[in-house]
């Protein structure tokens, strides 16, 4: 019997979804790295989140990997993975949820919601004023599916929207689209900067102290891309000296975020545990994508969200 494999353990609902689509096949779930390493030699079709590295040379039968998230830094680079293996990610699966989460984070920062909650816990009645998003500029670094969905929501609030894209071209709800090498221009124009980039050799560490210095005084920074893109210590220092009005991080260099990280105590920093794209039916949507891509792979057709390894996404 031909098998479909998943790692690490995924839900029973996903198993049922695949069983309904492919009743003639067995769906096998590995719960541990040891099971993955032991069984990888016989796998053809794989759904994998953060698979163990350095074992792909044994994957002689592997034809297709579906990554259940948008980011590929947990898989690539993989020099020992055969070029014949096709890869797809899950970009677009959580665009509405992620863009809503980013907007909620922006509003929480601008309207001082963490301060209000802290005052409530302390039973303190201390009125405060807050700035408005209407008429301000949001800069979205990475106008992909998530960035474009966010642009629509920010535009509805009366904001000017600018951003970067690998291949600049006009986009609905975006007032100005710049190339990646014009990032500093976006930073200088924006009251709110949102990082929604993939982690690649080009983006790693790109939002450093110099980039933060190029931002408007008292601007806000939100990162929902990948932790390795933003220099976390540079952000902490900018917050401490008041160069940034606030920041919101949903992704980090080290996850889970260690208890000793200075990010926990940084002023005006909202920390969330990589949950911007999570919602109850997430795996159901990923399962539907996996099913469709298995069918496309076996028919020799283009995959949905097929990855270009040379770009890293």
Structure description:
- The protein is of the alpha/beta class.
- Helices cover 30% and strands 16% of the residues.
- The protein has nine helices and twelve strands.
- Helix 5 links the parallel strand 6 (137-141) and strand 7.
- Helix 1 (12-21) runs parallel beside helix 9 (282-298).
- The longest helix is centred in the C-terminal third of the chain and has 17 residues, at 282-298.
Indicate the topology.
Blueprint: E1 3-7, H1 12-21, E2 26-29, H2 33-39, E3 45-48, E4 64-66, E5 86-88, H3 95-110, H4 113-122, E6 137-141, H5 145-156, E7 160-164, E8 176-178, H6 183-189, E9 192-195, H7 209-213, E10 219-223, H8 232-240, E11 244-249, E12 269-271, H9 282-298
Parallel strand pairs: 1-2, 1-3, 3-4, 4-5, 6-7, 6-9, 7-8, 9-10, 10-11, 11-12
Keywords:
Rossmann fold; 12 strands; 313 residues; alpha/beta; 2 domains; 9 helices; seven-stranded parallel beta sheet
Summarize the structure in short.
The chain is an alpha/beta fold and 313 residues long. 30% of the residues lie in helices and 16% in strands. It has two domains: 109 residues, Rossmann fold (3-Layer(aba) Sandwich); 177 residues, NAD(P)-binding Rossmann-like Domain (Rossmann fold, 3-Layer(aba) Sandwich), CATH 3.40.50.720.
